Amino acid sequence: MIKSLIENLYNANEKLELHYDSLFYSFTRIYWNLVIHYDLNHINMVGKKAEVQSILLNVQSKHQIPNTFVFDKLSNELQIFIVNKVKKKCKVNVKGAIYGDTSGTIYDFDNEHEILRFNPAFFSFMQRYQSVLKYMSNY
């Protein structure tokens, strides 16, 4: 999720709000490429899968999508379908976990209107150190 936040810094409006569609498009694309394209398990427990991972694997199986397909190669309709499934499942759990882990210092959110609001100080920090944070989130 942090990498998705970083990727969407410049999609935030003047109130530092980011719509869930942008956020979860990035999140889903990143997750798809890790889970489907690179066959990585996102949970460090044998035999367990994250719920998002299960969603993506089910879509891959149902639509017979080869592992070689990166997310951007899927049809727009299928991308939207997958993003909506992921957004529905994650809009509380994933966002809420980071919100709780950081005591609400990074952002707050409104699930009814599907908007995330960056904390101005953290937004400035993320912009300033974007390349370092992106590197750290990759490794």
Structure description:
The protein is mostly helical and 139 residues long. Helix content is 58%, strand content 8%. It contains six helices and three strands, in the order H-E-H-H-H-E-E-H-H. Strands 1-3-2 form a three-stranded antiparallel sheet. Helix 2 packs across helix 3, helix 2 crosses helix 4 and helix 3 packs antiparallel against helix 4.
Strand content: 5-15%
The helix/strand order is HEHHHEEHH
Helix and strand content put the structural class at mainly alpha
Q: For the report, how would you describe the main beta sheet?
A: 3 strands, antiparallel
Q: Quickly count the helices.
A: 6
Based on CA atoms alone, the radius of gyration comes out at 15 Å
What is the element layout, followed by pairings?
Blueprint: H1 2-7, E1 17-19, H2 20-37, H3 51-62, H4 76-101, E2 107-110, E3 115-118, H5 120-128, H6 130-138
Antiparallel strand pairs: 1-3, 2-3
Helix pairs in contact: 2-3, 2-4, 3-4
